[in-house]
Amino acid sequence: MKRFLYYILLVSCFQANGQGSLKEVFLQSKMDGELTLYDGTEIVFWGYGIENQTTGLAKISLPGPILRFDLGDTTRIQLRNTSPEAHTIHWHGLDVDQANDGVGHTSSNVIPNALFTYEFVCSEPGTYMYHCHVLTPLHLAMGMYGLVIVSGEAPDLLYDNTTKYTKEFSFLFSEMNLNWNTNPLSPGPFALYEADYLMVNGMSDQETDFSDNAVVATEDDTLAFRMANIGYGSVRAIFPPELEVFAVASDGRRITPVETNELEIFPGERFDFIARPLQVFEGVISVDYIDLRNNNLLGSNDIPVTVTSTVGLTNDTMSPSVVYPNPFSETVHVEAPIYPVNVDIIDNTGKLLKRVTVQSASEVDLRDLAKGVYHLKMDADVFKIIKR
Ligand SMILES: [Cu+2]
Fold it and tell me: How many whole angstroms from 124 Cα to the centroid of ligand 1?
């Protein structure tokens, strides 16, 4: 089952006073969400959705839509509560004044059928979250949360020029308890909350392979990862060794970049990373969910990562050796500067799997290889090749 729970928000925008833009967002809070999980379990959820300005209707998603702004923007977010209970939007980590902070008992509850307008300036780039702050444990568990992204000084920067990227991926980690989401009027004591489903962007591990969650890149890409944890447990992100990863920001503020292989993200925390592939590979970012009451591992999610070659020819341009296509499915075409030449297929441990001697430009039959990443060595030239 493929679900697109995430979509980039389209906001109306126009120049305001020369300081960034004014961006208007029209949201509704609702309690009528229905979701079929990967295993067929049907749940209800509460959440936020974009209000259609023609029909006045909104469909909520879990998590809510990503709210994306530019540095310096003034945002004006209208929340229309079309549900039977009060809700708010708390801007987690954003520097807003008390009236716009969305903590019901200290600012304003948005009662049923009311309209409330939040307004603030996006003064710091970074990764933030929004969530309801009425009966917070329940309303959070029911799905009333999403990501806020404030881009850096330019659209392809997390912050400044040192955090330039070519591809961006955001991951919001959360949990779901079946009893709470099937029986929200009597969910049981919060102290007994147990995570039945562990999610990345609202999807369990069994779904992430088939979703927009997958990281797909080429070896020349610089990747930006935004990670945020809205769950009740902590999350440990473990990066594949083929990625060189630097944590560059914590909770929406720059830090001195720290090279990292794994990082624990506690509830409410966000981290931003810049990652560069060291080679062509297929792997995963493993996400462990940890119960903070006893440090037990609750389970893991895998975010698939596929890094492909930029072109079929990965060699330097001085060499006339060519290998294509890459990735391939059955055969590769090879051409060498001199013949005969040995074409060696080597696995990631350096083991020679196959040697074919070719007398001229040839198709090399590699149907007997399993899917994966190999090295093709031809004279002094080595190519990384991927079998799909
Ligand atoms: Cu709420």
Answer: 26
Q: What's the 135 CA to ligand 1 centre distance in angstroms?
A: 7
Distance of CA 293 to the CA centre of its chain: 27
Q: How far is the CA of 173 from the centre of ligand 1 (A)?
A: 19
What is d(CA 274, CA 243) in angstroms, rounded to the nearest whole number? Answer: 10
Rounded to the nearest angstrom, the distance between the alpha carbon of 264 and the centre of ligand 1 is 28
CA of 48 to the centre of ligand 1 (A): 9
Asked if pLDDT for residue 86 goes beyond 90, the answer is yes
Average pLDDT over residues 345-351: 77
- Catalogue the E-assigned strands of 293-349: 296-308, 322-324, 331-335, 341-346
Residue 241, SS3? Answer: coil
| 279-315: pLDDT as tens digits | 999 999 999 999 999 999 999 999 999 999 886 544 4
Rounded to two decimals, what is the model's pTM? Answer: 0.76
Q: Which domains does the chain have, with CATH numbers?
A: 12-157 (2.60.40.420), 167-308 (2.60.40.420), 322-387 (2.60.40)
Distance 134 CA to ligand 1 centre (A): 5
Q: Report how far residue 161's alpha carbon sits from residue 155's, in angstroms, rounded to the nearest whole number.
A: 11
Which stretch of 98-107, 239-248, 359-368 has the lowest confidence by average pLDDT? 98-107
Summarize pLDDT for 243-267 with one digit per residue, the tens.
999 999 999 999 999 999 999 999 9
